[in-house]
Amino acid sequence: MSNGRRLRAGLVGLGSMGRHHARILSGLEGVDFVAVVDPMGDKHGAAQGTPVLNTVEELLDLGIDYAVVACPTGLHEEVGLQLADAGVCALVEKPLADTVAGARRLVDAFESRGLVAGVGHIERCNPALLSLRARLEAGELGDVYQVVTRRQGPFPHRIADVGVVKDLATHDIDLTGWVTGQQYASITAHTVSKSGRKHEDMVSAVGRLDDGTMVNHLVNWLSPLKERFTSVTGERGCFIADTLTADLTFHSNSAVATEWEALQAFRGVSEGDMIRYAIPKREPLLVEHELFRDAVLGEPADICTLRQGLRTVEVAAAVLESAAGNRSISLKSEDLTTHGS
Predict the structure, then answer these.
(1) Which band of pLDDT confidence, cut at 50, 70 and 90, is reported for residue 287?
(2) Domain topology for 7-120
């Protein structure tokens, strides 16, 4: 951060994610954490002495440069439009909105006013995925064939208003497009609801990206095993990222000629070296906040734009549509820049 100007920031929502945002904002270099909006108050003391207000209007009256929107997904559109109308930049938690139409209205509201706005797709700031993306861009894997993600664990009691597709699967949809630089061309999905709630709590999706790369996503919040797994398989081997531990490993195809006839006859690949990369591990949420702060200051910063966040909402909607209708959904390719601005 080279700009000497200090920014005034606010926060909307002190739920489980909002409390983490409050912790980061209260110590973020170059930023004054002005106030929090939450009509439920600050039950956990997360605001750390920062004033807690009842309405967004009260926050706007204090004068802020940007706000972090961490209220329930169903309120993102209403709060985001209030901020845009007031000329305030916004970092909106993922997913951008709970409907495609709402996400589009947010894109239009901020773009038409030339305001910096982003979506909190935090996996983009995970050290393992940042390293993986850089290696794919450098061509280390050659042609990419397949991306597989598994995201499962126990039910998060913080979630009340959406199912597993809009909550957890949006992480995998966004990171897949981001690390590959491609967009989804089609998706087929199945969902089940086993926990007695009206929303789905398990999804299996198979998709294809614009360049023909195959995609598989398995997501649920019904498993006692917590897993955050991303693998990218290609011409030269396979990268595996564990975003819980921020570890990245590479399993290379063996280049060693084999004398064993049975293996020689099989024209696929054989196992080669495995490399575990040493990666500096900074907290992803802090990295996300630093990038957004820099973007508001007009510095180059690779944030997840609202337009990219809209695309993820569109793909999530297609996943639910596919599951409901038991059919494959084609996604027309929008003129979206997958690599941020």
Answers:
(1) very high
(2) Rossmann fold (3.40.50)
Amino acid (1-letter code) at residue 273: D
- Which CATH architecture best describes the domain 124-281+313-330? 2-Layer Sandwich (3.30)
In a 3-state reduction of DSSP, which class is residue 131?
A: helix
pLDDT tens figures, 293-313: 999 999 999 999 999 999 999
pLDDT of amino acid 262: 56
* Partners of 248 in the β-ladder: 241
The answer to whether domain 7-120 and domain 124-281+313-330 are alike in fold is: no
β-strand partners of 100: none
C-alpha distances (whole Å) from 102 to each of 95, 106, 124 are 11, 6, 23
- Cβ partners under 8 Å of residue 134, min gap 6: none
10-54 pLDDT per residue, tens: 999 999 899 999 999 999 999 999 999 999 999 999 998 999 999
- Where in the chain are the domains? 7-120, 124-281+313-330
